[in-house]
Amino acid sequence: MNNNLGPKYQCTICPYIYDPEKGDPAQNIPAGTPFADLPEDWRCPMCKHPKSDFVAIEEVIDNDSPEDKETMEALDMGIALTKKDVYVCDVCGWEYDPELGLPEAGIAPGTAFEDLPEDFVCPLCGAPKSAFSPKQMDTAADGQAVTNA
Ligand SMILES: [Zn+2]
Ligand SMILES: [Zn+2]
């Protein structure tokens, strides 16, 4: 299928939408013509306004879609939560990931670091909970040195 035809364009004067997948056969524009490739003298078939009166509607869809907004907010919240949730041992760099828990120490997956027993110790070096620091998940990509010994 054609996925690289660019966005649909909406006429700002009338409700007509130029769909590159459909083209504009009435004006000899074959299906599959991106809006950018339309001749400069192409006009809106409904109101006869020029290309300059059209706007790409990708942005409009983004702004209108509550789903997208919620996804963005959920992502923001997700980052904020994981920042708190994953803890790194300051001594050896071992990471406590609450999603995994620590089954070999009787810690069920999904147990938040704050909910660990006070006598929890790092399984690698034996450091106490107080030796752990929250991990900054958003810098993990360039902060991998954190896990080096
Ligand atoms: Zn129009
Ligand atoms: Zn440790």
Automatic annotation (TrEMBL):
<dbReference type="InterPro" id="IPR050526">
    <property type="entry name" value="Rubredoxin_ET"/>
</dbReference>
<feature type="domain" description="Rubredoxin-like">
    <location>
        <begin position="6"/>
        <end position="57"/>
    </location>
</feature>
<keyword id="KW-0249">Electron transport</keyword>
<dbReference type="GO" id="GO:0005506">
    <property type="term" value="F:iron ion binding"/>
</dbReference>
<dbReference type="InterPro" id="IPR024935">
    <property type="entry name" value="Rubredoxin_dom"/>
</dbReference>
<dbReference type="GO" id="GO:0009055">
    <property type="term" value="F:electron transfer activity"/>
</dbReference>
<keyword id="KW-0479">Metal-binding</keyword>
<dbReference type="InterPro" id="IPR024934">
    <property type="entry name" value="Rubredoxin-like_dom"/>
</dbReference>
<comment type="similarity">
    <text>Belongs to the rubredoxin family.</text>
</comment>
<dbReference type="Pfam" id="PF00301">
    <property type="entry name" value="Rubredoxin"/>
</dbReference>
<protein>
    <recommendedName>
        <fullName>Rubredoxin</fullName>
    </recommendedName>
</protein>
<keyword id="KW-0813">Transport</keyword>
<feature type="domain" description="Rubredoxin-like">
    <location>
        <begin position="84"/>
        <end position="135"/>
    </location>
</feature>
<dbReference type="GO" id="GO:0043448">
    <property type="term" value="P:alkane catabolic process"/>
</dbReference>
<keyword id="KW-0408">Iron</keyword>
